[in-house]
Amino acid sequence: MTKLIAFCTIFVVAVIFSIWEFRKKHVHSNSAHKHHHGIKHKHGEGFSIDLYAYTSHIRDWSSDFKVTFSVIVMILSIVLNNPYVSVVIIFAMAYITVVKGGLSITEYLSFLAIPLSFILLGTFTIAIDFSKEPIGQYNLYLGFCYVFTSLVQLKKMLFLILKVFAAVSALQMMTLSTPSSEIIAVLRKVHMPKLILELMNLIYRFIFILVDVYRQMKNSAEARQGYCDFRTSCITFGSIASNMLVVSLKKANAYYNAMEARCYDGELHFLEEKKAIKWNQLIAATAFIMFLFLLWGIM
């Protein structure tokens, strides 16, 4: 009971502080906020993640600091394996992304909804099981077998969801505030193999290019009644899938020609901005990590 009261107190203080900080920032930096209002996230418009990263208010933070901090927090959320720690990480990452980064809460939740759906589907099988006899605390008869679960299994599923969601929140903080070129630059500094870095960059770019091409093909098909019934939808889907292969090969050739025109010699180079790590950010990150360890020890 004492742990629950302490946790609720921490949660309420964090929420009040976040709201107060958000309101203060909204009033004093309204003009800086305006450029975000023109950005609308639509599923399928691929480069919007990088667009949010470039317009984030914390983009001037050192990319070394953001990547290192998010990776450390992600590892701690997995290693410490504590639901209270996971909840604190979720709210802390949301605070950095929404309040400090200036991303609207609606857009942030929209981004989190995608991984959350996969997390729920993946963990649902942990909570339920099947049996011919009603052996669980909660049983549902389907006519030929029972679907059963228990408080222990539900608790296990909830804790796993919180742990995974905390790790995803840490990575979302990094991707929504750091452009992909800066993340790759940080990985290059830690001597990750060049081949992996180039594949990461090319795959990342090609995913969005192909998604954009698919969206254009789908819009064209819809304009021509390509989805008017089930049979036509199947034919349209097959046509788009076959055309995607041809278009992807053409895009790959165009991409390679563009790289060669820019003196590509087997290694990709990006313009890197030098951003120093500020002492207040370093102290705040250290204090937060120590707080996570303290919370883990208490709870």
From TrEMBL:
A cellular-component GO term for this protein: ATP-binding cassette (ABC) transporter complex
GO biological process: cobalt ion transport
InterPro entries: ABC/ECF_trnsptr_transmembrane, Cobalt_transport_CbiQ, ECF_CbiQ
Main localization, broad class: membrane
Protein localization: Cell membrane
Keyword Transmembrane helix recorded: yes
Pfam families named in the record: CbiQ
Transmembrane parts of this sequence: 69-96, 108-128, 134-152, 157-175, 195-214, 279-298
Bilayer topology annotation: Multi-pass membrane protein
Keyword Transmembrane (UniProt): yes
Keywords: Cell membrane, Membrane, Transmembrane, Transmembrane helix
Protein name per UniProt: Cobalt ABC transporter, inner membrane subunit CbiQ
Native organism: Lachnoclostridium phytofermentans (strain ATCC 700394 / DSM 18823 / ISDg)
